[in-house]
Amino acid sequence: MQLRWIRFLVMKILRLASLLIAVSVISFWLVSLSPVDPIQAYIGADMLRVGTEQRQAIASYWGLDLPPMERFIRWAAALLHGDLGTSMIYRQPVAEVIHERFSNSFWLMASSWILSGIIGFVSGVIAAMKKDTWVDKMITWYCYTLVSTPTFWIGLMLLIIFAVWLGWLPVGLGVPAGVLAEQVTIEDRLRHMVLPMLTLSIVGIAPIALHTRQKLIDVLTSEYVRFAIARGEQGLGLVLRHGLRNIALPAISLQFASFSELFGGAVLAEQVFSYPGLGQATVEAGLRGDVPLLLGLVLFSTLFVFIGNGLADFLYQIVDPRLRGGGRA
């Protein structure tokens, strides 16, 4: 048993290392092809006041005058020592920027992920149990509509309705404007997080609900469930006894595999609500040519998604007895 888990962890670590190397090389190559001039983005509106010598001094300070290959080797060597570099936008170490922004994004993404998973799973089960009724058609219509709806559009609609028209929630930001950090309460942070969280949750409901519905319909039409019905089992008891165990694995896999969509949705939602999280930092780093921060965020998001998929594999082996027999590592 222990040998199997050790092999599982070793394989995961090797795959993670190869993935991070590939992502680093490809990301740096793509960033080097970007038309954004990092020096111009760094100087901003004062570009006309900066002379050629000052521009060269800035490029030399940030290492932008070096060939791309030499810059990558220096960056990779520093990364091996745990140094992600310094952000050109925030003038802080990249690790500190990511830590600060992730503390905001974590609660946003975690609450959205849990809420969308629970609502999506329950909606899928209800739709399958009420197949071909008005309840099923309403849930299916709702899901198909959401699947084809952009995240930023949902965010804008929620912003207009609940912040502008009704005035129930703040328009944006992570905390009230003009309030000192020590005076910000937990209630203030929660009120500012509600609309971005609802945006991500609403978008995440559709895939898990549609997938759960179809899987449960397949289970309920199987031979062994028909046999159970012939023995007198029916209703919620039939679903709990024969259905949930069979649809739990696909639901777990799909929900953990949605980490990449969750992170991508957070980028758009945080941008709409000016929420100070990783998504907004990623957009700023890309638009302003902050290469160290952008690469650090790419590596961190890769690690984030990989951990999500790794947890799905781990739970697979916990939930499914067939995998505990050693058939998969």
From TrEMBL:
Bilayer topology: Multi-pass membrane protein
GO process annotations (BP): transmembrane transport
Organism superkingdom: Bacteria
Keywords of the record: Cell membrane, Membrane, Transmembrane, Transmembrane helix, Transport
Residues covered by the ABC transmembrane type-1 domain: 102-316
Family: Belongs to the binding-protein-dependent transport system permease family.
Name under which the protein is recorded: ABC transporter permease
